[in-house]
Amino acid sequence: MHVAQIWQHPVKSMVGRTVGTAEVVPTGLVGDRTWAVRDQVRGGIRGAKQLGGLMRLAAVPVDGPGGHVAITLPDGTTVTTVDPGASAAVSAAIDHEVTLEPLAPPEDLDHYRRGEMYHDDLMDDLRATFGREPDEPLPDLSQFPPEVLEFESPPGTYHDVHPLLLLSTSALAALAEALPDSDVDVRRFRPSLVVDTDGAPGHPERDWVGRSLRVGEVELDVVGGCPRCVMVTRAVGTDVPADRRILRHVVSELGQDLGVYATVARPGRIATGDPVTLGG
């Protein structure tokens, strides 16, 4: 196995970019999810679970990983986070008032606290967030770190649960085969790393849970599957249409999970093509 793609998403829920190399630190990839939007209507840092239009925007760094970013809007215009009008432009593009905000220190807990729900009933809010039909199960929320119940993301980060999300080429191929009329674009699934699994059938990353992975000089601990939410149904950029069939398949046929989460046991540098070795 080897690293096929490394993805950086400079702004939470916007389309990111692939890079040839990246530094891996305990909080994930350097330059990944260093900006996000705050909902000025209900409060809280938010992503495309609630503000789906964010996935039609794309972001790239303009002065190195972790610095300011340039955001391309659906009409093709670009704004940068140094532009005082950037938040207004993003708000207009997604038809919801937001402000762009960089990562705050982990001690600034108020920055990361959840805002108001989008529905009056908690179960309705969860079903909307995870995109579940009335007869479909919700994920087991007890598998998530307890801080994500109080905070939109673990303080000091803008990732949802864990620092890294791994997805195999086999999983993408299996999904495309199962859903021939759907656009199984990797950008829907927002991985940190895509691992080429040498044509193994199905979803081999499921067998990585509870084990370690050596990725170049980096060591990762695979901690669990990634329960998928409404984001995988959203339109992406200007060329990938919305499609609810993908989530229906993931829920009914894949036990709700696609890809696996990992934490960082040993930081370091990784590169496309690096070998990936499964440990104990």
What's the structural blueprint in terms of helices and strands?
Blueprint: E1 2-8, E2 17-19, E3 21-25, E4 28-29, E5 35-39, E6 45-46, E7 58-61, E8 69-72, E9 78-80, H1 86-94, E10 98-102, H2 109-112, H3 122-130, H4 147-150, E11 164-168, H5 169-178, E12 193-196, E13 212-215, E14 218-227, H6 245-253, E15 257-266, E16 268-271, E17 276-278
Parallel strand pairs: 11-12
Antiparallel strand pairs: 1-2, 1-12, 3-4, 3-16, 5-6, 5-10, 7-8, 8-9, 11-15, 13-14, 13-17, 14-15
Task: Write structural notes for this entry.
The protein is α+β, with helices and mostly antiparallel strands and 280 residues long. It has one domain (2-278): Beta Barrel (M1 Pyruvate Kinase, Domain 3), CATH 2.40.33. 16% of the residues lie in helices and 29% in strands. It has helices spanning 86-94, 109-112, 122-130, 147-150, 169-178, 245-253, and strands at 2-8, 17-19, 21-25, 28-29, 35-39, 45-46, 58-61, 69-72, 78-80, 98-102, 164-168, 193-196, 212-215, 218-227, 257-266, 268-271, 276-278. The strands form 4 sheets. The protein has an 8-stranded mixed β-sheet with strand order 2-1-12-11-15-14-13-17. The chain has a 3-stranded antiparallel β-sheet with strand order 4-3-16, with no helix packed on it. Strand 1 and strand 2 (17-19) form a beta hairpin. The chain is globular and about 45 Å long. The two termini are 16 Å apart. It comes from Iamia majanohamensis. InterPro entries: MoCF_Sase_C, MOCOS_middle, Pyrv_Knase-like_insert_dom_sf. Residues 138-279 form the MOSC domain.
